[in-house]
Amino acid sequence: MQAHDLQALIQAGLRCEHITVEGDGRHWSAVIVSPEFEGKRLIQRHQRVYATLGQRMHTDEVHALSMKTYTPAEWQAVSQ
């Protein structure tokens, strides 16, 4: 799997205003900005992203994914 493949999978299941994905084919890091994260705790945000990947997390296709998840307002505050 390539970074753009993983990014496309996440975007297909989650409305993203910004997303970057980097990794080595098994270990990934992502920055994800979505209005769907409004009012959600960190664990709920991560669960939402994991849900977009489905079985890929269980079959080791995506071995590890570290995430920074932001609402659009949070992203605006940290990216300035």
TrEMBL record:
SUPFAM superfamilies, sorted: BolA-like
- Which InterPro entries does the record cross-reference, listed alphabetically? BolA, BolA-like_sf, BolA/IbaG_stress_morph_reg
* Family that this chain belongs to: Belongs to the BolA/IbaG family.
- Protein name according to UniProt: Bola family protein
